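=== RUN LOG ===
request id: a7f3
mode: sequence -> structure
chains: 1
length: 601
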Amino acid sequence: MNAPLNVASEVLRVRDLRVELAGQVDVLAEVSFSLAAGEIVGLVGESGSGKTTLATALLRHARQGARIVGGQVVVAGQPLLELAGEALRLARGGLVGYVAQDPATALNPALRIGALLRETLLAHLPGLSPGALQQRIAQTLVAVGLPDDEALLRRFPHQLSGGQQQRVMLALAFVLRPKLIVLDEPTTALDVTTQAHVLQTLKQLCRDQGVAALYVTHDLAVVRGLVDRVMVMYAGRLVEVASRDALFRAPAHPYTRALLAAIPDIARRQPLQALPGHAPAPGQRPHGCAFAPRCGQRRAQCSVLEPALLEHQGGHQVACLLPQLAPVAVDSTAIETAFVAAPVAAPVAASAVLLEVQGLDAAYDRQVLFDISLQVREGECLALVGESGSGKTSLARAIAGLGENVQGQLRYAGQPLAFAARQRAARLRHQIQYVFQNPYRALNPRQTVGQTLSTPLAHFFGLRGAQARQRVEAVLERVSLPARVADLYPQGLSGGERQRVAIARALICEPKLLVCDEITSALDVSVQASILALLRRLQGEGLTLLFVTHDLGVVRAIADRVLVLRQGRVVEQGSAGQVLEQPTDTYTRNLVAHSPSLARV
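=== RESULT ===
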């Protein structure tokens, strides 16, 4: 159990917090920690580790079917778990602010930005005069880096960029001057420059206003330059708590080391090491150490004794019977762990051009792509990178035959190829496949995995029945999923498993070119590492990849060449090493400089 934070400015104190499902099945147990005014603490862990459950519990909220059954949550001296009714409503927002992951769904699309801010203020401070209200809004907009003008206040959320929407979310949280703010993966879908600006804004706001912040994320690289301390959570319990410098210099828990080893880093090209297995679901937690079944350093006693969170040195706490207290060089070319690494593929040798694009233009209500030309060779991985709105997805969709109002020339295997998929010959349509960003929306929830995978077999190859089932099981094995998954519906799968099914749906069509549109952006780092290892293996088997991403760490891990887009135009292209290590364009240098890295703060 955590020791209290010995500071006079303590804002949050959590003691022995416990959240249960029906039947006394714990989701969180024995969670204790403290936050000081102005302190930013990162909460990291894989999906399913309990991070969001803890974050929402700090607002005295639990998802449907769960209950907060024990412990204390004290914010600025107020016992939050004892509040109810109007007092609780005022505490949510006024005492504890919350910033959700997706501003596009969190912001009311029917209200203008000014109305959202005014409504929030008046709900908590109804006696505020019109002048004071306007002054508070103006001060907050400036603080979060947005213009203080009527043009912005008259806009609807959909008229703002992703970065502006996230800044509005920060404004809605900080406009009430809370004592604590909880941020649940707020920059996951942002490009690297926008993410860097939002994080810097958050850091400045917390320092200037003395607000304590809990930053929930699955990516240790993102919090590397933001937080003061890091808490690592696994299976509903804290397994390591340390200052930022101590944790990155000498991660003591095998789980923390494994998370670090799974993170692709722009500063180096290294084998990514995916964790085997999955975090146990509530009610399936094993005896002893919950991480033992996945740990390469486990001993017999690990399956019997549950380790307590104990302080070892300098406030560094770890829940492990065999903590690794020696420093580890996270900025070197390898991280010492007991997990099996996926090999880094050798550079692609010169081969025939599979895809060629010349003079491509595309438009919607305005022109979004201008005179794009590129080549992709057989067996190569070409990464398309750039900020949000640069045209990456528009270009990828045009190549896959999903774009509209596209002009130019497209050649595939030396032959002209129509821009509309419906105009392409049937023998070619299956050779270019698209994997969408969101696996939760890409799969039909009313079809089993087997039905989803069988449909293209019937459509392209006329295969049904036993033959189709055999092919389905073979492609599931190819993406490291058991045959039984064919009988499951998407809602019975994790995010990583769904993404593997989406890749399998493309692979079963026997493609030669796979277009991947931000397919790892919503995945935790361990699942991302396994997906990237899978793609590298498929590339080794001869598959050609067009990989769309804003994560330059991922580019370093998987790409052979890089094409950089800015406002619909190509500004730089070359080998991955050349572009990332010696960028020539100012825009590319800015992208590289703002990319999170374990090797730099």
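=== NOTES ===
The CA atoms of residues 2 and 32 lie 5 Å apart.
Confidence is low (pLDDT under 50) at residues 1-7, 330-348.
=== END ===
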